[in-house]
Amino acid sequence: MFVFSRSKNNLIFLQVLCLILFSGLLQLVSVRVHAYEGQMQRTVNNVLEAYGGKNNVLKIKTVSAHGRIDDFLRKTTGGYARTMRRPGELRIDIMPERGGEVRILSHGKGFQGSGDRLSAAKPVSLSSMRYQYGYLDLPMSLADGSAKAVHKGIEELHGRPMEILLIELASAPDLKVYIDFETHLIRRVEARFDMGGMGSSVLGTEYDNFKTVDGAVFPFTLNNFAGGKKISILSITRLTINRALPEGVFSSNH
């Protein structure tokens, strides 16, 4: 009887101990989740302030950029133009003076080609266009809340601490965003693309040479890389926001 009673008491003790430990674990997880939720909002607020303030960022509806591209893969240099209209429209002209490539994204549909000869974009190219629009839409998508982002902690980039946001994109790989811990500017974006039988590769862009245009901040130098190898540099010489755009600029027939 004594043995049975002691065993029963031990069992009750273990059950109570497990309940306490489980309750403590739930509280720890809850605290951590709420901490990251709070950090997420602080990070967004800091980013918007660094880019000129939430009000200035929310005013951005169109962005037109012109400059030069240094293409290391093709070992050539030429003109570059980019036109973006929120929401969901992007046109990129690469070396137009040579009849180079045109890429158009318009509300989920993609077209690419040369000059006026455009055709529907292949799945990988369309995914790439959506990814491009996704990172060019920052920080505007953070300001209006359309970005589905979560805070993933701190990592290091080039010896500097970076806050990491992971942003879910529609029909494209998740976007990993590196935010400078001190300046709160976005310094790098990247995503992992499935290359079919060739495996996967990380495509990304690093930002530099930030300048203020009509109260909002933009990077004027963009270093593009694939699989850790630098593939091109975009040097922006002129950037305007909220200007009237030519009719049909996002049309495949333009």
Give a quick set of tags describing it:
single chain; about 250 residues; alpha+beta; outer membrane lipoprotein receptor (LolB), chain A; 13-stranded antiparallel β-sheet; 4 helices; 13 strands; about 30% helix; about 45% strand; globular; disordered N terminus
Task: Describe this structure as you would to a colleague.
- This protein is an alpha+beta fold and 254 residues long.
- It has one domain: outer membrane lipoprotein receptor (LolB), chain A.
- Helix content is 28%, strand content 45%.
- The chain has 4 helices and 13 strands.
- Strands 6-5-4-3-2-1-13-12-11-10-9-8-7 form a 13-stranded antiparallel beta sheet, covered by helices on one side.
- A hairpin with a 3-residue loop joins strand 2 and strand 3.
- It is globular, with a radius of gyration of 24 Å.
Tell me briefly what this model is:
Helices cover 28% and strands 45% of the residues. The protein has helices at residues 2-50, 54-58, 123-136, 140-143; strands at residues 62-71, 76-85, 89-94, 101-106, 109-114, 117-120, 148-157, 160-168, 175-180, 186-194, 200-213, 216-226, 229-241.
- Percent in strands: 35-45%
Count the domains.
Answer: 1
Question: Which CATH first-tier class would you pick?
Answer: Mainly Beta
Q: What is the helical fraction, as a range of percent?
A: 25-40%
Ranges where pLDDT stays below 50 over 5 or more residues in a row are: 1-6, 16-35
CATH topology: outer membrane lipoprotein receptor (LolB), chain A
Major sheet: arrangement of strands: 6-5-4-3-2-1-13-12-11-10-9-8-7
